[in-house]
Amino acid sequence: MSALWSAEVVAKSDRRVTVDVRAIHPDSGEFSDAKKFAFRLIYDPAYRYGPGLVREACGPLGEAVQLEQIFDDAFLDGNVDRFLERVTVRDVRNAPLDVEALREGIDRELSARGVRRDDGDAWSEAWQERWDAFWRDPARLPAATYEIDVTDPRWIAHLELGSRWESAAY
Q: If pLDDT is split at 50, 70 and 90, which confidence band does 1 have?
């Protein structure tokens, strides 16, 4: 599964974690205020793979919930409120992303530089370079700040100020 988001903890208190989230893939979609999305987001760093690719919990959240349960909507529908009290999305920037307009803008830029579509590899390479440059520039990416309130401080014990990770949360 491809990463859709990058996340960074920018503040943390006893029962709240504030996470800056950036879209890093064109299929990421819009910023969701659903508890299931936020739960999947903070769950990603709650485990890691150790030697032999054995899954290891990185704290109480990773111990309380199995990875398979994160993908089970019925499980989350019945249990997410045990972990999360509230999710607030604020300070949404550069969103929504109009992917088609981005593609058209790259086309126009390359045409203005004299690169022609019928140049085959030259067009493809130049186009891919501009596309990749967009996704590498954090200032241009869709971003939002999430405030996630948990029911118990244990559920965010694995997160520290400055923690960064990528997520395929949906």
A: low
